[in-house]
């Protein structure tokens, strides 16, 4: 049983990242030490990263102190990320106004606090302010209504 | 006198109407951010970076710098009034500042903090002006091997003085360096790690990384610990702003000691403002004839750390401005802003763009004056802002992050990239991996590779070049010594204790 979960999974993450970079970068010309190719620096770094990741894994398996990962805020995480991705996915098709309103509403659900009415008011207020500042004021090249509503 | 000449150039730039205005915007926003719950200086600067790209470089840097030291001020206000440090560097201020507020002396604590910060800010600015020229002149003699070793030292030191596991922090640096390499290789023209996505052919958007890790990731982190209800309850009355005669006498020495300590620690990479305030608090406690009053509303415990953190915040600009090596996450963002404005941070900035360099330095002093004016008479407004509940704040932050990420290159792709880094930021938090070293590595990655390449070309592939050139060898020896220090059990223990007080 692994006691130190935080170190263990950090190690897995770093080792996996290092190995992935090694797998990609081995196709790049390595060059010589005098004339380093584009593969040289990433290969060296990734190798070190992978080794350190493995050390972390081994150390975590031998650790005596418990360090568990607890209390992952899955719902807030999903909703916050959903609000962000929604913004990116729809801002060009649905337009600035609709997407800003929707994103605020989705994001606001991530909190335990606030009534639906307050969230609607917040979304409306944010949309209005952002519209005035970013579209009217700073002239951001985004369509306020979008392709769908035109 | 050269110093006066330089300052004159600076003031003529900083005192222009536009720059004064941006300086004011910066410190105002900074204070606001420092006061509002759950919004850090790093996230704010990342959020506002895109908005400053259309400004002239000097105005944008003046404003960004203003946000940084403004946030230090605002953070102390919340620390004193509601025992919630807005910035990690004001954690110590909360210890005695809040106790003073409970005793009805909030006004005196706020004044002490403002005056201390102002004195510290002014002296530290003068220090930057004095040190910048010789340091830059020294750095101009650096060749590629020296630069490479200097970056190694900068990265190593940022790890040593940061908290948490050393091995993880080093891994985070390497991860950052690798992420920085994504995009077209300048030497061969080869696209690296781009997965044939044209949007990242020029590299991963720095703004997307910073906003994802520090903006979006931070929001989820705050929501994890979200409590029900607002925090309006228990904001104490500010009371008289004037400290008593006795209190004035007691704060003078701590202010100057704090300034000296903060100025020195601020220059060290990775340390900056937070370390300075911790060190100053323990120093004042040791020197005080009544150490038992510390923790029960000792005004020295507010004056010292507050001066120290502001001095540290100012002098942490020195390595970035003179050597091009950012020493903490905020400085990494400033360096990123300079790069996006087409200015390569480093010793040549002062020679080639004296107006920009000195304008920025002098604007810091002007900004400090503005902060005193902003904070003391207007304290009532900030107190009311303290009551803004987080659940009304973070959805707005998300939308502004989305707009910001988009506006850098008008690309929807960057919003998704930011979302991905947001997830990563939360994963890092859960695994106790500090994201700041990653950001430093991300900025330094391409530069480090380039200097390594040039050094190797000059030495014909001989790695000993880093050890045979005296400056480079010294820098590497310092890095090794710093690493050895962390591994030593005695230092390790004090380091862990120092950072535990914060948690």
TrEMBL record, chain A:
Residues that span the membrane, as ranges: 7-28, 40-62, 69-88, 94-111, 120-140
Pfam families: TctB
Keyword Membrane: yes
Domain DUF1468: 9-142
Record carries keyword Kinase: no
Keywords linked to the UniProt accession: Membrane, Transmembrane, Transmembrane helix
Protein name: Putative tricarboxylic transport membrane protein
Organism: Propionivibrio dicarboxylicus
Automatic annotation (TrEMBL), chain B:
Keyword Heme (UniProt): no
Transmembrane segments: 20-49, 118-143, 150-183, 317-343, 355-382, 388-406, 473-491
Keywords: Membrane, Transmembrane, Transmembrane helix
Ranges where the DUF112 domain occurs: 20-440
Designated name of the protein: TctA family transporter
């Amino acid at each position: 049983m692994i006691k130190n979960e935080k170190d263990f999974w950090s190690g897995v993450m770093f080792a996996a990242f290092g190995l992935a970079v090694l797998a990609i970068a081995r196709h790049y010309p390595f060059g010589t030490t005098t004339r380093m190719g584009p593969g040289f620096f990433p290969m060296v770094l990734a190798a070190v990263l992978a080794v350190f990741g493995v050390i972390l894994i081994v150390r975590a398996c031998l650790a005596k102190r418990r360090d568990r990962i607890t209390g992952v805020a899955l719902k807030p995480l999903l909703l916050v990320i959903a609000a962000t991705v929604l913004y990116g996915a729809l801002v060009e098709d649905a337009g600035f106004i609709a997407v800003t309103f929707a994103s605020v509403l989705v994001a606001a659900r991530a909190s335990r606090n606030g009534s639906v009415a307050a969230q609607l008011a917040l979304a409306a207020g944010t949309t209005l302010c952002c519209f005035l500042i970013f579209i009217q004021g700073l002239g951001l090249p985004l369509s306020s209504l979008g392709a769908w509503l035109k | 006198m050269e110093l006066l000449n330089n300052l004159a150039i600076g003031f003529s730039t900083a005192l222009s109407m536009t720059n004064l205005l941006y300086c004011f915007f910066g410190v105002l926003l900074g204070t606001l951010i420092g006061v509002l719950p759950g919004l850090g200086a790093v996230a704010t600067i990342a959020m506002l970076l895109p908005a400053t790209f259309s400004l002239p470089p000097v105005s944008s840097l003046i404003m960004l710098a203003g946000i940084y030291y403004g946030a230090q001020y605002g953070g102390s206000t919340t620390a004193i009034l509601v025992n919630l440090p807005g910035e990690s560097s004001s954690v110590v201020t909360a210890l005695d500042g809040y106790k003073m507020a409970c005793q009805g002396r909030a006004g005196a604590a706020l004044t002490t903090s403002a005056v201390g910060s102002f004195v510290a800010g002014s002296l530290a600015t003068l220090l930057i002006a004095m040190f910048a020229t010789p340091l830059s002149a020294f750095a101009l003699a650096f060749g590629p091997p020296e630069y490479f070793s200097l970056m190694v030292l900068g990265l190593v030191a940022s790890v040593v003085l940061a908290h948490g596991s050393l091995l993880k922090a080093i891994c985070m640096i390497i991860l950052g360096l690798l992420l920085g390499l994504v995009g077209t290789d300048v030497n061969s023209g080869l696209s690296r790690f781009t997965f044939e996505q044209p949007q990242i052919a020029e590299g991963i958007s720095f703004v997307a990384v910073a906003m994802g890790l520090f903006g979006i990731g931070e929001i989820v982190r705050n929501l994890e610990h979200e409590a029900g209800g607002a925090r309006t309850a228990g904001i104490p009355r500010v009371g008289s702003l004037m400290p008593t005669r006795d209190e004035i006498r007691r704060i003078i020495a701590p202010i100057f000691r704090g300034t000296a300590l903060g100025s020195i620690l601020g220059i060290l990479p990775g340390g900056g403002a937070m370390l300075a305030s911790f060190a100053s608090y323990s120093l004042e406690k040791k020197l005080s004839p009544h150490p038992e009053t510390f923790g029960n509303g000792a005004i020295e415990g507010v004056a010292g750390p507050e001066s120290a953190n502001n001095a540290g915040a100012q002098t942490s600009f020195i390595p970035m401005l003179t050597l091009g090596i950012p020493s903490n996450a905020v400085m990494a963002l400033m360096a990123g802003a300079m790069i996006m404005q087409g200015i390569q941070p480093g010793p040549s900035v002062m020679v080639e763009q004296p107006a920009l360099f000195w304008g920025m330095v002098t604007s810091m002093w002007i900004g400090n004056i503005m902060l005193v004016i902003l904070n003391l008479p207007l304290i009532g407004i900030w107190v009311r802002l303290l009551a803004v509940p987080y659940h009304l704040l973070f959805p707005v932050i998300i939308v502004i992050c989305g707009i910001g990420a988009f506006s850098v290159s008008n690309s929807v792709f960057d919003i998704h990239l930011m979302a991905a880094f947001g997830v990563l930021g939360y994963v890092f938090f859960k695994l106790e991996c500090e994201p700041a070293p990653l950001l430093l590595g991300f900025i330094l990655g391409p530069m480090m590779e380039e200097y390594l390449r040039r050094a190797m070309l000059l030495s014909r592939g001989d790695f000993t070049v880093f050890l045979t050139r005296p400056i480079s060898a010294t820098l590497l020896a310092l890095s090794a010594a710093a690493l050895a220090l962390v591994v030593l059990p005695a230092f390790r223990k004090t380091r862990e204790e120092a950072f535990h007080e914060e948690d």
